[in-house]
Amino acid sequence: MKIASLLAVLLTTVLLTMSMAVAQTKPAAAKPAKPTTHVMNGTVESISGSGDAMTVVVKGSKSSDKPVTLMLNSATTKTGDLVQGAKVNAHYRVDGSENIATSITASATRKK
Question: What's the total number of domains in the chain?
């Protein structure tokens, strides 16, 4: 009888210790969502600002595409001559309500 009581006490102690350890374990922090990136081809409709604070409005290559306003900053990789009417390939991410360009490449316009 003493052995059975002793085993019961030991088992209870082990179970309580394990449950306390599990209760104190912190859940792993959720990984932040990876920002969604987009790619578009189109024509520059307008440019405002200059340098690292430039805004470019690009009209998609399809007639049904709506113009997209892209914010360019110091981290944006710019290739080619960004002028009105230039054909561009733009990579951007959505940050809140702004489209932040990560890279934009303007191809040379053909002279007619």
Answer: 1
